[in-house]
Design goal:
10 strands; three-stranded mixed β-sheet; alpha+beta; 30% strand; Immunoglobulin-like; five-stranded antiparallel β-sheet; 2 domains
Amino acid sequence: MIFFYWYCQRVFRAEHVSIELPAFLAIVIYVLFVFAGLVITMTYLGNAVWKFGWKRLAPAWVIMIATLPAIITYGTIYDLYMQRAFVRITDDTYMYRVARVWSENLEVTGLESEGYDFVFSFEPVYVYDRSTEDSFGYAYTINDVYVDVIHTDGSVKTMVLPKLDKGGCRTVSIGGLKSVR
């Protein structure tokens, strides 16, 4: 439940939700206390009290072990989405349409039909300066990401998005972006 809330907020609204601690606690409580406790109790009761064999307990053990790949899958999806930056672009003036989003390593076109409010994601590119190093590592810059917008009169403007780190989320309005040309 926590994972799906995080996923929907990130992908559909470009909002950052910190779920590390609640998700970790939910997984630990579920796996260690609820499910494992139930399986261990049923194993004890099945063997010591009710005197039936291990074959009747095998489905419970299989279900408990089968939850581990699901938890690993959630972790993998979380890691993949934390490598991307999510931007929600809104047009508060209703006079522009986004034609494309681009940078040195990215180009997304065909966005005119997305409307006045949409979310897209990209992987920020870090350019490291290997000549300087301090206790935090190498200095770096993040490549700019540009947005080409079409005005209702047909003119095209190029605007620059604010810089986002990996895992970052932001909502920007076209009226608040800085025009490059």
